[in-house]
C-alpha cells in the first residue's frame, strides 16, 4: 500500500453501528468476549465441545510444553467427516441441502446432507480399496465441482491427509507439491469449465508424472470437461471406481492432532511451504468463526463463499466450517463474468443467497463495471457480507454495502492466513460498530498485538508489526517436513523463552479505539488479487529461462488486483540483441505462467542492463517498486552505483 492510501485510510471517520433488529437475532453475543477474557482456554474447550462431536471427549485443552509445537484437545478423538456429514443426518437434517452447485455452462446439481454423506462414504470405500489409509497423502487437483468437496471429505474420513493444489497451478508446481508430500494418489478431472471453455487438467497431471518416478500409484479422474484424455496404466475413472463402491462406511475416530491437510503457500524463499493443519482444533475454530462471524442460522441461511477450494478460504469456509455447521451453501465452478458480467448476482438471486463472502479484488472489478449490473438483479436476500484476502479500501467497502448490501448489510472484513487456519480478526455482525477499511478486533479467544521493531507493544494510535501472542486452536502445526523452517519463519522474530509469539508478516496500525487496520505484507510476499506470491519464487522461475542472466521482481500497486507482478530482467549477453525487449517480455511472461501458473504471470517484464544493488550485493527492490509504480525514485545513497537508477528510469521512459 502506498503512503498516500495509508493516510486516507487512517482519516476514515465513517462509523456504522449495528441495527437493533440485527442484534436481536444475532448468533454472537458480547458474552463471548467476556468469557474468553475471563478464561481463554476454558472458552476454547467450551467451543470445541459445543461445535463438535467427539468420539472420545478430551480432558486436556492445550499442551504448549514444547513451543512452537502445539497440541490442542490432544486426548480427544473425532472424525472430521462425521462432524461435517453423518451427525447432521442423524440429527434429522438429512434432507437439508448441503450444496447447490452451479456449473459454469449452467448445469446444476443439488446435494442434501444425506446424499453428500453417501457420496463421501462411497468415495472413502473406493479410496480405501486403493490402499489409502490413515496418514497417507492424497493430492487433489480439481475444478470447483462437488467431487472436490467429496474427495476432501473422503480423505478426511479415512484419517488420511489431503493436499489440494489449485487447478491454475502448472504441472511443475503440481509435481513439486506431490514430491514434497510423497503423495500416493492424485485425484483430478479431465478438465473443468472456465470463461466459456473447457480447460484441461489431466494433461498437467500426465506431464507432472511423465517420468514415472514419483510416489504416485494411481490417478483417479473425474469426468467433467468431456475433453479427450490420454490414458495411462495408473489411471482410473472416478465414476467407475466410486459409483460401484458401497454407500455404507463407518467413520473411525482419530486423535485430535491427526493431520487433516497440507496446503502449500508462498513464503519469502523460492520453495512453497507445506502448511500443516490437524483435526480437532482446526475444525473447532473454522466452525466457530463461520457461525459467529457470518451470523449463520443454518436452518434458514443460504451461504456463498466464492473462493476456489484450492485456497485456504475454500478449505475453511467452503468445506469444513460450513459443513460442520450444517449450512446450505452455493458452490460455483466458473468465473464471475461468464457468460455475462452479472453472473454472480444472478446466482445470488436464483438461490436467495443471504450471506456472501468474497475478495476486495472482485468487488473493485465490479465497481469498475458500474452498479447497473448488480442493480439488474434482486439481491434483497443478502443480510451479511464478508471480505477476505487483502485490505479492503473504504471506497470499495462503501460500494459493497450500498450496492450489494442495500445500504444495510453488515460487512465483516476478516483477516487471517493459510497458517492461521481460520479467521483471527473481524467484526462480529450485530455487535461491532463497523469502520470501513479496518478489520477491527481479534475474535474472542484470540490474542493479537501490534509490536514495534524492538518487540514492545506500540502505543496507539500507531503502526507496527502484527503478532499473535497466544497459541490458537486452528494454528498451523508446522511446515511439512521442515520443523526448522517453521520455527525460523514464524517464531524467531519476537519470541522469548517465556513468551512465544507468532509473527504474521503483516504490518498493521492500531487506532485509539484499539481497532486494527491491516497495511499489507512487510516481507517479500506479494498479494495479487488476494493470492500470495513470492518475489523469490518468480525470480527463480525467470532465471531458469536460458535467456535470463538476472531478475528482480516487485509487487507494484495496481488498482484492480491490489498488487501486480512487475519484473526487471537482465538478458544474457548472447541473447541481448537477438530479441527485441517486447519479444523477450512476451516470452518470459509465458514462461513464468507455465513454470508456476497463470496467477504468477508478470503484468510487465522490463529488460534492463543493470539492477540496483547495495554494496553487499542485495537487490534494492524498493527502488524498483518506485519505478514500477511511476513514482519519483527514493533514497539511492546505499546503492553501490548510484547512477544505475537513472539508467533504468531513462530506459523505461
Ligand atoms: C492478507 C487468505 C488485510 C494478509 C485468508 C495475510 C488480508 C495474507 C486480509 C494471507 C484482510 C488476508 N485484510 N489483509 N482482511 N485477509 N490478508 O494465506 O497479508 O492466502 O498475511 O490467506 O493475506 O493470505 P492467505
From TrEMBL:
GO MF annotation, one: acetate-CoA ligase activity
Segments for region (Disordered): 1-23
Post-translational modification: Acetylated. Deacetylation by the SIR2-homolog deacetylase activates the enzyme.
Residue intervals of the AMP-binding enzyme C-terminal domain: 537-618
Reactions catalysed, as given in the entry: acetate + ATP + CoA = acetyl-CoA + AMP + diphosphate
Cofactor(s) for this UniProt protein: Mg(2+)
Membership in a protein family: Belongs to the ATP-dependent AMP-binding enzyme family.
Ranges of residues in domain AMP-dependent synthetase/ligase: 90-480
Residues the record lists as binding ATP: 389-391, 413-418, 506, 521, 532
SUPFAM superfamilies named among the record's database cross-references: Acetyl-CoA synthetase-like
PROSITE patterns: AMP_BINDING
Species for this entry: Antiquaquibacter soli
Keywords tagged on the record: Acetylation, ATP-binding, Ligase, Magnesium, Metal-binding, Nucleotide-binding
UniProt binding sites for Mg(2+): 543, 545, 548
Enzyme Commission number: 6.2.1.1
Modified residues (N6-acetyllysine): 618
Name of protein: Acetyl-coenzyme A synthetase
NCBIfam families, sorted: Ac_CoA_lig_AcsA (TIGR02188), PRK00174.1 (NF001208)
Binding site for CoA: 194-197, 313, 529
Domain Acetyl-coenzyme A synthetase N-terminal: 31-84
Statement: the UniProt record of this protein carries the keyword ATP-binding: yes
Function statement: Catalyzes the conversion of acetate into acetyl-CoA (AcCoA), an essential intermediate at the junction of anabolic and catabolic pathways. AcsA undergoes a two-step reaction. In the first half reaction, AcsA combines acetate with ATP to form acetyl-adenylate (AcAMP) intermediate. In the second half reaction, it can then transfer the acetyl group from AcAMP to the sulfhydryl group of CoA, forming the product AcCoA.
Amino acid at each position: 500500500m502506498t503512503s498516500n492510501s495509508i493516510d486516507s485510510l487512517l482519516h476514515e471517520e465513517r462509523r456504522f453501528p449495528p441495527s437493533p433488529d440485527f442484534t436481536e437475532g444475532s448468533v454472537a453475543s458480547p458474552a463471548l468476549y467476556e468469557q474468553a477474557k475471563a478464561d481463554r482456554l476454558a472458552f476454547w474447550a467450551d467451543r470445541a465441545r459445543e461445535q463438535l462431536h467427539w468420539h472420545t471427549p478430551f480432558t486436556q485443552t492445550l499442551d504448549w510444553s514444547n513451543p512452537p509445537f502445539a497440541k490442542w484437545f490432544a486426548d480427544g478423538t473425532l472424525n472430521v467427516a462425521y462432524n461435517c456429514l453423518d451427525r447432521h443426518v442423524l440429527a434429522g437434517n438429512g434432507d437439508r441441502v448441503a450444496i447447490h452447485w452451479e456449473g459454469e455452462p449452467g448445469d446444476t446439481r443439488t446435494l442434501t446432507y444425506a446424499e453428500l454423506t453417501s457420496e463421501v462414504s462411497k468415495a472413502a470405500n473406493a479410496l480405501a480399496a486403493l490402499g489409502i489409509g490413515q496418514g497417507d497423502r492424497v493430492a487433489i487437483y480439481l475444478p470447483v465441482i462437488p467431487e472436490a468437496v467429496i474427495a476432501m471429505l473422503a480423505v478426511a474420513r479415512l484419517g488420511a491427509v489431503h493436499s489440494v493444489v489449485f487447478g491454475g497451478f502448472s504441472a511443475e508446481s503440481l509435481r513439486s507439491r506431490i514430491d514434497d508430500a510423497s503423495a500416493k494418489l492424485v485425484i483430478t478431472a479431465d478438465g473443468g469449465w472456465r470463461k466459456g471453455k473447457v480447460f484441461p487438467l489431466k494433461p498437467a497431471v500426465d506431464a507432472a508424472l511423465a517420468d514415472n518416478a514419483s510416489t504416485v500409484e494411481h490417478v483417479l479422474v473425474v469426468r467433467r470437461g468431456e475433453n479427450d484424455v490420454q490414458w495411462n496404466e495408473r489411471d482410473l475413472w472416478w465414476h467407475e471406481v466410486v459409483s460401484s463402491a458401497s454407500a455404507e462406511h463407518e467413520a473411525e475416530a482419530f486423535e485430535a492432532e491427526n493431520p487433516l491437510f497440507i496446503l502449500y503457500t508462498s513464503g519469502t524463499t523460492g520453495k512453497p511451504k507445506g502448511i500443516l493443519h490437524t483435526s480437532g482444533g482446526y475444525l473447532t475454530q473454522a466452525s466457530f468463526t463461520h457461525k459467529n462471524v457470518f451470523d449463520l442460522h443454518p436452518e434458514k441461511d443460504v451461504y456463498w463463499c466464492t473462493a476456489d477450494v484450492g485456497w485456504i478460504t475454500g478449505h475453511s469456509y467452503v468445506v469444513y466450517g460450513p459443513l460442520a455447521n450444517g449450512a446450505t451453501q452455493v458452490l460455483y465452478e466458473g468465473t464471475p463474468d461468464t457468460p455475462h458480467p452479472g453472473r454472480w448476482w444472478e446466482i445470488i438471486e436464483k438461490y436467495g443467497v443471504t450471506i456472501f463472502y468474497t475478495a476486495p479484488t472482485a468487488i473493485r472489478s465490479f465497481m469498475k463495471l458500474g452498479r447497473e449490473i448488480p442493480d439488474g438483479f434482486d439481491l434483497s436476500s443478502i443480510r451479511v457480507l464478508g471480505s477476505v484476502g487483502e485490505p479492503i479500501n473504504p471506497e470499495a467497502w462503501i460500494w459493497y454495502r450500498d450496492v450489494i448490501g442495500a445500504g444495510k448489510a453488515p460487512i465483516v472484513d476478516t483477516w487471517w492466513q493459510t497458517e492461521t487456519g481460520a479467521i483471527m480478526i473481524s467484526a462480529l455482525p450485530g455487535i461491532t460498530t463497523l469502520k470501513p477499511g479496518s478489520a477491527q478486533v481479534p475474535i474472542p479467544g484470540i490474542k493479537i498485538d501490534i509490536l514495534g521493531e524492538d518487540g514492545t507493544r506500540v502505543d496507539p494510535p500507531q503502526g507496527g508489526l502484527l503478532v499473535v501472542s497466544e497459541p490458537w486452536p486452528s494454528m498451523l502445526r508446522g511446515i511439512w517436513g521442515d520443523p526448522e523452517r517453521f520455527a525460523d519463519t514464524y517464531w524467531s522474530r519476537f519470541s522469548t523463552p517465556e513468551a512465544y509469539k507468532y509473527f504474521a508478516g503483516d504490518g498493521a496500525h492500531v487506532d485509539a479505539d484499539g481497532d486494527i487496520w491491516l497495511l499489507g505484507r512487510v516481507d517479500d510476499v506479494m498479494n495479487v488479487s488476494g493470492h500470495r506470491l513470492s518475489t523469490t519464487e518468480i525470480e527463480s522461475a525467470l532465471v531458469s529461462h536460458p535467456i535470463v542472466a538476472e531478475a528482480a521482481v516487485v509487487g507494484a500497486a495496481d488498482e484492480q488486483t491490489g498488487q501486480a507482478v512487475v519484473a526487471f530482467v537482465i538478458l544474457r549477453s548472447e541473447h541481448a540483441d537477438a530479441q527485441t525487449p517486447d519479444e523477450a517480455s512476451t516470452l518470459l511472461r509465458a514462461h513464468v505462467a507455465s513454470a508456476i501458473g497463470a496467477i504468477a504471470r508478470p503484468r510487465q517484464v522490463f529488460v534492463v542492463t543493470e539492477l540496483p544493488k547495495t554494496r553487499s550485493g542485495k537487490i534494492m527492490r524498493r527502488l524498483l517498486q518506485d519505478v514500477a509504480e511511476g513514482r519519483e525514485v527514493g533514497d539511492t545513497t546505499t546503492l553501490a552505483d548510484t547512477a544505475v537508477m537513472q539508467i533504468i528510469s531513462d530506459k523505461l521512459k
